[in-house]
């Protein structure tokens, strides 16, 4: 006799832990490297500080997150415990399932531009850019956006900055697009050349940056399902 039905009980217990809204996006954002409260909130998107604080306390109580405070500076970091790390294959499988079973346009059209730009730090490869300061302006033509223009500030030896206000530097490259086009490129569902040819992506400015965009605006050689899950959870 099959014993599979008895797996309903542990799955139900797992759902009790993971089912509250935002739990999986929070763990996914931490999986992608965020440890500070504000960074987690930006990465997750559309979650209030109060609710995020509540969810982090719940995850800490469940043994999935550890809160570490530097007594000298008062800085607080949240890190995953081994119990949470053991969930990675589950999240990986969920991302793979989403990639295969959720219609791409339906998922990507729900992306929040602000969250997409926050994650852009992980998709610009500074090693493939000139060894100097590079400023890239992204302008999105999606209707109804609160902010439609963002700047990526890339400097050698410094983490990439994403700004929603003019950073006070000359712009090297202007990128005109929409969120579906740019996210489809990131996920490998289209190419830069194809989007330019279809008039969904316009580039102007530094000729070298335009010519080499396929190298510095990169996607991984093999799609990481965590990227799919992360982007498809970054909804409005």
- Taken as a percent bin, the fraction of beta residues is 15-25%
Shape summary: globular
Number-wise, the strands total 7
Q: Uncertain regions: pLDDT < 50 for 5+ in a row?
A: none
Q: List the helices and strands in order.
A: HHHHEEHHHHEEEEHHEHHH
Total count of domains: 2
| CATH third-tier fold name of the largest domain | Nonspecific Lipid-transfer Protein, Chain A
Give me the side-by-side strand order of the main sheet.
5-4-3-6-7
Q: Helix count?
A: 13
Mean pLDDT: 81
Distance between the termini: 46 Å
Largest sheet: 5 strands, mixed
Radius of gyration: 20 Å
- The SS-based structural class is alpha+beta
CATH class categorisation of the largest domain: Alpha Beta
Tell me the helix content.
40-55%
Description:
- With 236 residues, this protein is of the alpha+beta class.
- The chain has 13 helices and seven strands.
- The chain folds into two domains: 4-86, Arc Repressor Mutant, subunit A, CATH 1.10.10.10; 107-233, SCP2 sterol-binding domain (Nonspecific Lipid-transfer Protein, Chain A), CATH 3.30.1050.10.
- The protein has helices at 8-18, 23-31, 37-44, 49-61, 82-85, 88-101, 104-108, 113-119, 179-186, 192-197, 207-211, 213-216, 225-233; strands at residues 65-69, 76-80, 134-140, 149-155, 158-163, 173-177, 202-205.
- The strands form two sheets. A five-stranded mixed β-sheet has the order 5-4-3-6-7. A two-stranded antiparallel sheet has the order 1-2.
- The N and C termini lie far apart (46 Å).
């Amino acid at each position: 006799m099959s014993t599979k039905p008895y797996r309903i009980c542990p799955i139900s217990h797992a759902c009790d832990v993971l089912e509250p809204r935002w739990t999986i996006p929070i763990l996914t954002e931490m999986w992608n490297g965020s440890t500070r409260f504000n960074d987690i909130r930006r990465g997750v998107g559309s979650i209030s500080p109060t609710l995020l604080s509540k969810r982090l306390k719940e995850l800490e109580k469940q043994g999935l997150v550890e809160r570490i405070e530097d007594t000298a500076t008062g800085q607080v970091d949240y890190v995953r415990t081994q119990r949470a790390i053991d969930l990675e294959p589950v999240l990986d499988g969920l991302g793979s399932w989403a990639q295969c079973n959720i219609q791409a346009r339906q998922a990507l059209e729900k992306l929040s531009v602000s969250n997409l730009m926050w994650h852009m730090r992980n998709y610009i490869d500074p090693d493939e850019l000139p060894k100097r300061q590079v400023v890239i302006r992204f302008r999105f033509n999606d209707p109804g956006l609160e902010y439609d223009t963002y700047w990526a500030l890339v400097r050698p030896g410094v983490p990439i900055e994403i700004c929603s206000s003019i950073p006070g530097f000359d712009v090297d490259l202007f990128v005109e697009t929409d969120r579906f086009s740019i996210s489809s490129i990131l996920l490998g569902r289209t190419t830069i050349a194809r989007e330019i040819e279809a008039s969904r992506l316009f580039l102007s400015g530094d000729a070298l940056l335009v010519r080499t965009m396929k190298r510095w605006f990169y996607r991984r050689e093999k799609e990481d399902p965590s990227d799919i899950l992360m982007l498809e959870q970054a909804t409005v």
